Amino acid sequence: MNTLEAILTRRSTRKFKALPVELEKLQTIVDAGRYAPTGGNCQSNHFFVISNPEVLKKLVELVQSAFAAMELREDLYKSLQNSIRLSQKGTYVFNYNAPALIVVASQKEYGNNMADVACAVENMMIAANELDLGSCYINQLKWLNEDSALLKYLQSLGLKESERVYASVALGYADTESGFPNRNQSPRVGNEVTFV
Ligand SMILES: Cc1cc2nc3c(=O)[nH]c(=O)nc-3n(C[C@H](O)[C@H](O)[C@H](O)COP(=O)(O)O)c2cc1C
């Protein structure tokens, strides 16, 4: 698969097989993230490659508790409303039970933190597609990046005082008949282009 093909056929995967991802593939993917551009070449992203089921379970529990404690209001972003609703029912699994999650943090006092992290996430999702793995951008740990219980737990995993999480990416083998991720090229309906 060439680069353009990998970009054009990357689609989000939200259903994963309960199969671990090979460490070698995780290393290749996180390297693709590490080679993404960063503002001023500061390379201050911090990648947590998590495939330990106990750690993933704990993150799912902490995310669910944090959302369950929030007030469900109609004026909230739809996706956030959904997270709160499902958490209050006790059925919210923010990472779609993916066997691996790469959490990306950056310096909290740095203006390009989210931009740097998003560049890394896109690189990793394209690399995952090339390696026949499904992936999905996961924003919940960013929304909850000041939640004290989550912060404390992430700090126990190595998050520094000066860092916060700005995105994560769920990874795994897609639960499809073929075992390959969905690669339908969905026609663009937005993202206007003006040539001048
Ligand atoms: C900044 C950003 C945040 C996103 N957050 C989530 C998320 O938390 N959960 C999720 O399932 N998908 C998330 N997505 C994935 C989008 O929903 C998805 O990319 C979009 O619907 C287009 O579908 P495609 O990825 O299959 O092309 C996010 C994407 C971006 C760029």
**CATH class call of one domain:** Alpha Beta
State the end-to-end distance.
32 Å
**CATH superfamily of one domain, please?**
NADH Oxidase
- Mind telling me which CATH architecture of one domain this is? 3-Layer(aba) Sandwich
Q: Segments where pLDDT lies below 50 for 5+ residues? A: none
- Shape, principal axes of CA atoms: globular
- Ligands present: flavin mononucleotide
What number is the mean pLDDT? Answer: 97
**Fraction of residues in helix:** 25-40%
Largest β-sheet summary: 4 strands, antiparallel
Number of strands: 4
Walk me through the structure.
By secondary structure, the protein is of the alpha+beta class. The protein has a domain at 14-52 and 95-172: NADH Oxidase. 40% of the residues lie in helices and 14% in strands. Strands 1-2-4-3 form a four-stranded antiparallel sheet. The longest helix has 18 residues, at 113-130. The chain is globular. The model has no long low-confidence stretch (mean pLDDT 97). The structure holds flavin mononucleotide. Residues 11-12, 14, 136-140 line the site of flavin mononucleotide.
Compile the SSE list and pairings.
Elements: H1 3-8, H2 23-34, E1 46-50, H3 53-68, H4 78-89, E2 100-107, H5 113-130, E3 134-138, H6 140-143, H7 148-157, E4 163-172
Antiparallel strand pairs: 1-2, 2-4, 3-4
Helix pairs in contact: 2-5, 3-4
Bound molecules: flavin mononucleotide (FMN).
